[in-house]
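pasting for ref
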Amino acid sequence: MNTTLLLSLAFATSAPALKDTPKEPTVFGEWALVESLLGGQPDKAQPTVEKIVITENKWIIYRVSNLTTSTDIAFHPKATPPQLDFGVISGKPPCSQCIYKLDGDTLTVCYTVSGERPGQFVSPPGSQTQLLTLKRLKKNKP
């Protein structure tokens, strides 16, 4: 029995270490606005956006005019589809209720200007639905 125990311990200590499990993709980071549709049409504000930075509780838009705007946000990642709320203020309803999906380095966000949460990722012609397509900005490594 002691021999079996010793052999088990020897194999256990010489076994290769388990690799770290890869991190689940996150929406946090810096994003380029690739496309913005409002009512099925290109949004005129799109060319002014330099990048969008998303943190755990902020959505920050950097514009080429050096104007920066931000709003408080709240995520609901376990909803189907995952949800995001813009303009979160304690005790008040959010300004806009969004849905989002993350596919690799592409983030799609959809919301209505009226504030209702959309049910799908479309911006029908004539609607007040905004559909954003973002691509993750790669960080330059030194």
